[in-house]
Amino acid sequence: MNSLEKAVWNWMDTYPHEFMELQRKTNDELADCCDRLFDLLDNFAENNNKRRMATWPLQMMLLVLCAKILEEIVNADSGAPLSPEHFRKRQFVDSVKKALVPHAASKQLCEAAAVTCVRLCKTSTYINILDSNNVVFSLVQSVINDLKLLLFNPSKPFCRSQATINQDIDLMIDCFVSCFRINPHNNEALKVCLNLNSPSTYHFVLVCSLYRIITQPRLPWWPQIDIVYSKAHELRNMFTDTLTKVTQGCISHAPLRMIQSLTLKEKVSTLKFKEKSEESLSYKNLLLWMVRLIHADPVLMLNNQGKAGHEIQSSTLELINGLVSLIHQPSMPDVAQEAMEALLVLHDPSNIEMWNPESPINTFWDVSSQVLFSISQKLIQHQIMNYTEILKWVREILKCRNAFLQKHKEYANLGSHIAICKQAH
Q1: What mean pLDDT comes out for the span 158-176?
Q2: How much is the pLDDT for 257?
Q3: What angle do CA 235, 240, 246 make, to 5 degrees?
Q4: Residue-number span of the structural domain to which 19 is assigned
């Protein structure tokens, strides 16, 4: 069943126009096959919650591929006639909706409903929003609030089991991205994930979701990431907070990856050590993805609308100094490499302009000189191992600096008299 569902997703990702065409014009042969397979799965999973967990997501996909049948089922809620042969399909949809509400069904069914509804929401994003009469949208609206309440509840984070932590995080990422594409200005999940007091799982979900929104090839109707630019301040705070926890070991929240608790008293100290180790790894992973996010779209961290010039310069300096501090971290070579890439992108002339739009030249000399001075010091003091790679990187940074100065050659020396410039050069 997983293989079949994966095949459907691969088809939708590769040929989204074919899926859209199927929504406009039903393929009778495909609809008949999906209809019969749905019934087979329904009989297979009848009165068996464990089997429903496996079949429900695929059954929902099959219904979406049967546009006419799904339309009849959804319209039946408004009093439209329903063919007897589709009665069990309507029961299925009603069961999924009911199970999505905690305490209204067993834990197994609630979890199955969560997966099923995330798949439904994700599927709806492959349908052009101009096709507003498509019943998939109506079905999504009937479940999306309960779904967000279940998956983005910081007081009770969604977790099926210790063995499915990674799958649960993937599920939440799918949900976040889908919700963003369905209603980009409804930011309930975004607020939860941006809150520094929320479990770090939500921070990881947010960062990975934003990264996917930026990097995944877009369908024309998908909203762009610039809607989130206004949250740059909160994202910078999250970066600084995560950086501090990684570099100083100040871990205060639940880890992204958890380990099963042990009951034997003699293993308590070992457990605490493992938990601390797991927490450290989880925050390093979060930091890695945050740096990748900066690399993918630096404006997410540079946007400072409404801020005074000195505040903008201060926040830019904090961000860039944070990245510089990661370059000489021998225990995190992957993070160090990403930090170098992010700093190089930040030194693109168009991005330098955003370091402080009120005073770009002065800010450039101050901030970029601190970067060069810090890296040079580390090289001289033999605190960086990969000399050759760093020197090649510095050369690229200098090229970006020269391009920026060439662009502003009339007043390129403005602000270059400060002490840090003399030290760096």
Answers
A1: 91
A2: 40
A3: 125
A4: 1-129
Which residue has 């090289």 as its token pair?
Answer: 379
First to last CA, the chain: 63
What are 340-363's pLDDT values in tens digits? 999 999 999 999 999 999 888 989
Q: Is 255 within a domain?
A: no
Q: What are phi and psi of 25, to 5 degrees?
A: -135, 110
Q: Is the pLDDT of residue 35 over 60?
A: yes
The distance from CA 147 to its chain's CA centroid, rounded to whole angstroms, is 17
Q: Indicate whether 326 belongs to any domain.
A: yes
User: Two tokens at 30?
Assistant: 């495909």
* Structural domain count of the chain: 2
Residue 177's identity, in one-letter code, is: V
Q: Do residues 88 and 42 make contact, with C-beta atoms less than 8 angstroms apart? A: yes
Name the domain boundary from 104, 129, 154. 129
Distance CA 202, CA 304 (A): 24
Alpha helices in 152-184 (DSSP H): 165-182
Residue 269: C-alpha distances to residues 141, 248, 250, 256, 317 (Å): 48, 21, 19, 21, 41
- Number of other residues whose CB lies within 10 A of the CB of residue 7: 10
φ/ψ of 88, rounded to 5, equals -70, -30
For residue 271, what pLDDT is reported?
41
**What residues contact 360, with CB distance under 8 A and at least 6 apart?**
352, 353, 408
81, 114, 129 - which closes a domain: 129
The identity of residue 253, as a single letter, is H
Q: Is residue 182 part of a domain?
A: no
Identify the CA nearest to 19 among candidates 3, 35, 33, 30: 30
Give which of 216, 318, 261 is closest to 12, Cα–Cα: 216
- For residue 351, tell me if it sits in a domain: yes
Cα–Cα distance between 11 and 35 in angstroms, integer? 19
Q: What's the rounded Cα separation, in Å, for the pair 292 and 277? A: 23
pLDDT in tens, 201-216: 999 999 999 999 999 9
What's the CA gap between 333 and 339, in Å, rounded? Answer: 10
At residue 251, does pLDDT exceed 70? no
Burial class (CB in 10 A: 0-12, 13-18, 19+), 415: middle
